[in-house]
Amino acid sequence: MAAAPEMPEVPDPGGGGASSHSDPSKLWPEAWQPLLGRPALAELLGHPLAGAALTEMCRLLPPHVAVHSLRTYLLADACARTHGTAYDRVGLLAAAAFHDTGLVGRTPLGRGGFPLRSAQLLDHFLARHQVGTARRTTLTRAVREHMRPFPARDAGPEARLLHFGVWLDVTGRGERQVPGDRRLLTGQAPTPWFAVSFSARLVACGLRRVLPGSPVTHR
To answer: Which contacts (CB < 8 Å, 24+ apart) does range 133-138 have?
Structure first.
């Protein structure tokens, strides 16, 4: 991936979490390993909030959707590094982990559809981990608006980067900004026919307003 100035680190609240393991990546499914080895993710694995977000993603999402979420984060980070954009790295990883959680489960979807439900789930997660209101507002907005055709004019870097990563991974839009990255990540962690299955899930979500069944955690 393109080299760029180091992004500022989010302060680590310290103690516990995945940092107590000599190799935190081994906690996660085999399909994730090639992506977790990428520096942008590997650098965050010892952070308690990052570890908690990955744990929830593994619990809530089907395996192929979870891999899409990891690729989304890496593509967003590649864009940020290319343009020298500073952003909340751990926060964006949490947003990427939760951005599709509203697509699964039996909870009825009201106005705002699955992005609003995903944002609500993220907000509850962040509140449990004592993340401040301003930071929660920024991250939940990024999730709530990620299905817009284009980011809002006043969107912050987290919203713009999440939007970029999501659309690039699913549709290929924006590939010229980080040439080769999408193909590389898809080759390392493939999800065959993902775009087709994801589109079908979106259609089902729109037609029924609720999706049957909750995913079984795959390790």
So the answer is: 135/88, 135/91, 138/88, 138/91
Residue pair 178/82 in contact (Cβ under 8 Å)? The answer is: yes
Give the pLDDT confidence of 166-190 residue by residue, as tens digits: 999 998 999 999 999 999 999 999 9
For residue 113, report the phi and psi dihedrals to the nearest 5 degrees.
Answer: 60, -160
End-to-end, the C-alpha distance of the chain in Å comes to 28
Residue 96 φ then ψ, to 5°: -65, -40
Whether the CA torsion 147, 151, 154, 159 is positive or negative: it is: positive
Q: How would DSSP label each residue in 93-119? A: HHHHHHTTGGGSSSPPP-TTHHHHHHH
pTM score: 0.81
Helix (H, G, I), strand (E, B) or coil at 86: coil
Q: What is the pLDDT of residue 197?
A: 63
On average, the pLDDT of the chain sits at: 83
